[in-house]
Amino acid sequence: MDKIIKTISNSGSFRAFVLDSTETVKTAQEKHQTLASSTVALGRTLIANQILAANEKGKTKVTVKVLGSSSLGAIISVADTKGTVKGYVQNRGVDIKKTATGEVLVGPFVGNGEFLVITDYGMRNPYHSMTPLITGEIGEDLAYYLTESQQTPSAVGLNVLLDEHDKVKTAGGFLVQVLPDAKEAEIARFEKRIQEMPAISTLLSSEDHIEALLAAIYGDEPYKRLSEEELSFSCDCSKERFQNALNTLPKSELEAMKEEDKGAEIICQFCQTDYQFTEQDLEDLIRDKS
Ligand SMILES: [Zn+2]
């Protein structure tokens, strides 16, 4: 089971989240049948969303839209504060690697565009906040977003490692933030440690990457574990929800579906679940409308 561990330094100057998102991204890859670049791009977006949702409380929902201009198209994901995330990438067949090293390329195939975050507190108007994509590698884009929108010095790392068959091997990430009481000397020490941290891919390759991340983030600085929560990929769609959507269509359109298509098929974009509506289902909806 995937997890996020929330921690704070004993000094109260920094806090850090570390995440194991391996099963989340594996599930996303299975449901969407994504190829290499699409898997890594979608996976990184899901992890970014898990990090942003972990900052929220209650019934808040956080949507992340990576609206790039290149081959991958839009990447959309939605997460809640219970550790659940769902998402999809518009073009799931993007599979581009460097010939020499086999490195999976993401940034150039996200392209230029926007990193949009919609925070829905369950009030009337969800809160929209947007920054430009800096590299399209998602991690840097999230770091830029956090620094710009929250005005909190933040360091972020996230990645998805694939095996030789392009299946998800490990996925995870971290967020470190300086808290308002931090002293200059502490911030300098912290920045130095973050700069000297091994690459996120190296840390994710460790046998226990959660512990490797914590060790790299805190060094010999004492810290407390505040909580450990489960994370997963899970979609909240249902036949009833799509039935309600069908019900908003005009009667003439429902009649056309019944007569011409002999039913309707709706595939959930977020999880690829296929919902079938028979002629009888449509007939029931039409009858209820008159
Ligand atoms: Zn679904």
UniProtKB/TrEMBL annotation:
What Gene Ontology molecular function terms does this protein carry? protein folding chaperone; unfolded protein binding
Q: Which cysteines in this chain are paired by disulphide bridges?
A: 235-237, 268-271
InterPro entries, A to Z: Heat_shock_Hsp33, Heat_shock_Hsp33_C, Heat_shock_Hsp33_N
State the Gene Ontology BP annotations: protein refolding
Can you say where in the cell this protein is located?
A: Cytoplasm
Q: Which family does it belong to?
A: Belongs to the HSP33 family.
This chain belongs to the protein called 33 kDa chaperonin
Q: Which organism is it from?
A: Streptococcus himalayensis
